[in-house]
# Entry
Amino acid sequence: MSLTLLLIQCLNGLQYGALLFLISAGLTLVFGVMGFINLAHGVQYMIGAYLAFAYVSLTGNFMLAVVLSMGTALVFGLLLEYFVFRHLYDRDHLDQVLATFGIIIFLNEAVKVIFGPATLTVAPPEFLSGTIQLTETLRYPVYRFATILMGLVVAALLYVTVSFTRVGMLIRAGATTPDMVSALGVNIQRLFMVVFGVGAMLAGFAGVIAAPLFSIEPGMGDNILIVAFVVIIIGGIGSIRGAFFAALLVGLIDTMGRTLATSTMGLVFGPSMANQIGPALASMLIYILMAAILVIRPQGLFPPKGAT
Amino acid sequence: MREDRALWVALFIFALLLAAPTLLPMIGQGYLTNLLIKAMLLAIAALSLDLLIGHGGMVSLGHSAFVGLGAYATAIGIESGIENILVLLGIALAVAGSFALVTGALALRTSGVYFLMITLAFGQMTYFTLTSLAAYGGDDGLTLWSLATLFGSDVVQSGGGLYFLILGTMIAVWWLVHRIGQSRFGRVLRAARDNPERTEVMGYSVRRYRLTAYVIAGMLASLSGLLLVQHAEFVSPALATWQRSGDLIVVVVLGGIGTRNGAIFGAFFIVILEEVLGSILHEWRLIYGPLLVLMVLFAKGGLSHLIAGKPRGGAVS
# Structure
């Protein structure tokens, strides 16, 4: 294991973490403020990636496509909220799981019909497509640095909004004692709609950012949704700060685990055994972490202030 | 009176299923038998999940792990030369039961949404373990060239014998879950679902009752895995994905949570719906997805209540 490889994996981990944060931020707010299990959050990420593909091929301009995709993702999220989710807030979790599961099935099939089952790719914009010389032997793509940067920018924006604005105050209050907030005369319906819209937009934004990094395909949101749930459980449901640190933690553990697990297992077992166990163990690490957190500290590492 | 009607409905369905192998070839539809087998296998897993959700109030999003474990225990047993289906049954039950005991003991330290998430974590761990079994096909799964026998006889391998074995298992699981529900154990379980503190104060160890139910449900689900291997002659990790656990929840909720026949209604409804929609439209999921949403929004209480014409019963959290 050379130092260069370790550094690259570190950067990859941070980049994956930044992406995870963009997805988890919306999920944790919707879960924390409304107590709503939104399994459809993953397909909203997928929609973002497909929108990026559509707008890039339509306009040929990546930055324009980013703006248009975010707008469309926001409108789409609000429509979903208005027609479906609004009627499910006071239902039990089972109904929410079932309805959002139905939406996953529909949207996965819909993009397959519209864009075809094959995987699609989007090229990163011209000015972000180069690489940066880090050391003499190590070059790293600019786009991946930009991803990390976007994660940090969104984190900062959300932090300022949640900590210092009136809406942010209501969101924090809603995450802790929703009944009290509504008793104080706040239009909770509208608050929910705002939170949901922002969440959908962030998921769509994450999809756009991910489009040049991963291949775009139907069902691409299903697995990352589960990882996003891991993130918000580890960070503490409803906590933006928790989602941020947990996303970076999960990103790093998952990425480093994939490189280190096989070689570490090789020290204990034989090489052939290690090649078999290593990758499986690496995929499992974050779930083991989540299960451990749930057993030892169910409220998560950084629960929202005042929550019990 | 309502219980009696549920019993008669169930008996009617079982009678139809018993008669199906003799009736269907007359219509010339051998593939319908396959469809019924598919529905019955789904019903077995769903019945076991309903013991958890309906009676225990424990919503698990990792139940397909037990189906996968049962299937892999059977497949690996057959690959290592164990042929007797009763021995394989013992292995599958032991594997699923011990896994349920360990993971359940940890998972039941949590409740509600957190229980859903931790079972999901254990389900994912199982899935990734199964994909790592390179000797048994890894990601791609494994086709079996020989199947289990009953003391050397191939009666449980295909055709009518296998059909009646699966039907018999489904009826046995249905009966068992019903009996558990009626027993003192089931009453304590439902009491713990509705008010855990009060049940605890009355002197019952809620966790111990829930853990027992979790182990029983896991073992019953592994039966579905075993029979699935015998029917499909194939196993793959896809059996244990979280989407499969989601499918099981869909079946249970659509059928009617905690009702006697709900899981069976749900399973047959889903399988037949897939088949009918699939024959109308290749992209049948475009109809199926919105249909699920509409059923949640407008048909509260599931199919059992639509069929029985009664409003939703006791609160299920």
In short: The interface with chain A takes residues 53, 59, 61, 106, 109-110, 112-114, 116-118, 120-122, 124-125, 128-129, 131-134, 242-243, 246, 249-250, 253-254, 257, 283, 285-286, 288-293, 295-297, 316-317 of chain B (CB under 8 Å).
